[in-house]
Amino acid sequence: MQNGYIERFNRFFREDILDAFYFNDIYQLQRLADKWREYYNFNHPHNALGNKSPKEYKPRFDEEFRGFLKCKSQHLIMLYSL
């Protein structure tokens, strides 16, 4: 399944950057690619996150992760107290 994720990323990058602009030099491409990568990683809605951006999803993830850690730590305490 990893190949599917890479293919999707490549398609979005090609459509949004490589096919959308003419570049004067490699530095212009790098600047646009950096801005696009930051947008894609933090603000772009992702299907895997319920069509939320990572920035929108992070508070929910933090709550779930804290609950997971609390559950794991209680489980470990029970194991070591045997």
UniProtKB/TrEMBL annotation:
GO terms for biological process: DNA integration. Residues 1-62 form the Integrase catalytic domain. It comes from the Bacteria. InterPro entries: Integrase_cat-core (IPR001584), RNaseH-like_sf (IPR012337), RNaseH_sf (IPR036397). One of its GO terms (molecular function) is nucleic acid binding. This is Putative transposase. The lineage of its organism: Bacteria, Pseudomonadati, Bacteroidota, Flavobacteriia, Flavobacteriales.
